[in-house]
Design brief:
With 580 residues, the chain is of the alpha/beta class. It has 19 helices and 17 strands. The protein has an eleven-stranded mixed sheet, sandwiched between helices. The protein is globular, with a radius of gyration of 26 Å.
Length: 580
């Protein structure tokens, strides 16, 4: 009997490698036509929807009649049909024909919202179809048309067309910037080290992946327990050290805390093989050992923001299980863990879940294989797409048609300072965390030893934000279920960034707070919402009070001056940018 041998199974893998490279290049080329989204994911979702549309004529008719009936009722009632939509806040939207265009668009939105949720469809396909249908309808909104938007028409008349002229100049500048050319009009720029990231401090340690900044005390006495902050490596670290009046780091230092924070390196193609183990070792563990040495073994308050909080949760879980981390004896005991808009359980990834299935992750791996990394602009485009109505369409109308370009502020400047993601790390992160939820299920291994979040018994302070589209607050709340800890959970007003940046004195800020001891487990976020007490103002003072309650007293600040500095804060890694 002759054994059949396929060319792709032969010892000579060159043919197989060529075939794989060809397929990968084809996938990347097709993705360029779909805005970076997997054509396979889109095809599967749209096919699922089309089949269920074809076999659900009764439900389609029901949704059509129901939507039409609601529209007629709204027209008969003495109230605006969609008064809560900020796109139609102008009173002139109540005048025909603008009101007709607005109401018809709203009717189509309502109908599409219903018919993308047909019984029998895969849950993920429902989310994909609903999301992309919403993107199309946001693009086709009458508010985006200069001939159907009364605000644009009135502004054009009042300014004799000057608003459009100014807007087109801004559009040309945006195009020049996208092509790597210099803008014709100078814009107010923030300077790193003087306008943002300007809290005094020193870089006291540097490795291939991160710089460790120790901030200079500003009080005579400081708390014995230092604070070690792990920011996300998506974007730069100074989201937590913006302008002086908007800096969490400065606030903590002024309250008498010794603060250490990581500044991640912006990777290049040579870093393609850096993985999560490297980020854990070089980012968290190595620098915790340095903090231990510099503070003479004092217990450490740990803080993680966004993706940095996920990595911190992994590190704390690994350190909590004896034998899981080699060299753990060099790290001082941890006093607490604070998670800011961070996920440990990825079963509810929010709107990001639309972009995360096996075909989409495979496509991202193909794109990263071509470069060795995911570019900052590719990552930023994903987040912008999630909130296209607010971050793209409304902004373009305001800038291009109304001639009102946004005035740069510190948060906007930071948001434009994008970073890359190493290929291996990002692939592992998407597979093990988002797709397989390995950390929450106790299946993530560190040095071949599974780690479990249930081993964590530190006091935990966790913050979610009401409008977070990256880390839904219900997902951030899961830390209360996953750990064996007393958890103080705060739900703050605002979104993923603005809700965390809440300095005292900021107007229109509020939060809810409730501490759950070990013998009180509130499984449902909705139940927690009903029980938690509400407060006006910033949640930062409540956090400061919590940190003090979990500290052991103060020492002279002279004992916590940065020693043997390498460079002044903000260091060198924060200045690395790429034009991609």
């Amino acid at each position: 009997m002759i054994k059949k041998t396929h060319i792709c199974d032969s010892p000579d893998r060159s043919a197989s490698d060529l075939a794989f490279a060809f397929d990968r290049r084809l996938q990347v080329s097709l993705a360029a036509l779909t805005g970076g989204f997997s054509p396979i994911s889109l095809a599967l979702a749209s096919t699922d929807w089309a089949y269920h549309m074809a076999t659900s004529p009764g439900m389609l008719m029901c949704h059509t009649l129901e939507t039409w009936h609601q529209t007629l009722e709204a027209h008969a009632a003495p109230k605006d049909l969609i008064s809560d939509d900020p796109r139609y806040a102008d009173v002139n939207w109540k005048i025909w024909p603008f009101s007709y265009a607005k109401d018809m668009h709203h009717m189509v939105e309502s109908w599409c919202s219903n018919v993308t949720q047909l019984r029998g469809m895969e849950h993920h396909h429902k989310d994909v179809m609903h999301f992309f249908m919403r993107q199309w309808l946001d693009m086709l909104s009458p508010s985006n048309s200069p001939w159907l938007n009364p605000t644009i028409l009135k502004t054009m008349l009042d300014t004799h067309g000057a608003s459009v002229t100014r807007g087109m100049e801004h559009a040309v500048d945006d195009w020049r910037e996208s092509q790597g050319l210099q803008r014709l009009k100078k814009e107010t720029k923030f300077r790193i080290g003087s306008d943002v990231a300007c809290t005094p401090g020193q870089v006291i340690h540097r490795n291939h992946l991160a710089e460790l900044i120790q901030y200079t005390p500003s009080t005579q006495q400081v708390q014995r327990e230092p604070i070690f902050i792990v920011p996300s490596w998506i974007m730069k670290y100074y989201i937590l050290d913006l302008s002086p009046m908007n800096s969490m780091v400065r606030y903590l230092v002024d309250q008498g805390h010794t603060v250490f924070m990581l500044s991640w390196r912006n990777p290049d193609a040579s870093d393609a093989l850096l993985d999560m183990r490297d980020y854990l070792e070089l980012g968290v563990l190595n620098n915790l050992a340095v903090v231990t040495e510099r503070t003479q073994g004092a217990a450490i308050h740990t803080v993680g923001y966004c993706l940095g909080g996920t990595l911190l949760g992994l590190a704390v879980a690994a350190l909590s299980r004896p034998g899981a981390i080699k060299g753990a004896e060099k790290i001082a005991p941890l006093a607490s863990m604070t998670l800011l808009a961070a996920q440990l359980d990825f079963s509810n990834p929010g709107e990001l879940g639309v972009f995360l299935d096996e075909p989409q992750v495979s496509l991202l791996e193909d794109i990263m294989a071509e470069q060795g990394f995911l570019t900052g602009r590719q990552m930023a485009a994903c987040f912008q797409f999630l909130k296209a109505r607010d971050l793209f369409w409304s902004a373009r109308i305001r800038e291009y048609w109304l001639g009102q370009p946004d005035v740069m502020n510190d948060l906007m400047f930071w948001n434009a300072d994008v970073t890359r993601m190493p290929a291996s790390m990002h692939s592992e992160y998407l597979h093990k965390f988002y797709l397989h939820n390995a950390l929450a299920l106790g299946q993530y291994e560190v040095d071949d030893v599974p780690v479990s979040l249930s081993d964590i018994r530190l006091p935990v302070f966790a913050v979610g934000t009401v409008k977070d589209h990256v880390t839904p607050w219900q997902s951030a709340y899961e830390v209360s279920r996953l750990t064996q800890s007393e958890v103080t959970f705060i739900l703050a007003s605002g979104g993923h960034n603005a809700g965390i940046l809440s300095p005292p004195g900021t107007t229109d800020r509020s939060y809810q707070q409730l501490t759950m001891p070990l013998d009180l487990r509130i499984e449902s976020p909705h139940s927690w919402l009903q029980m938690a007490e509400s407060f006006n103002g910033s949640w930062w003072p409540a956090w400061h009070a919590w940190l003090i309650a979990h500290s052991s007293g103060s020492i002279p600040a002279s004992q916590r001056e940065p020693m043997d500095p390498i460079a002044k804060a903000p260091g060198s890694y924060v200045f690395v940018r790429y034009n991609d």
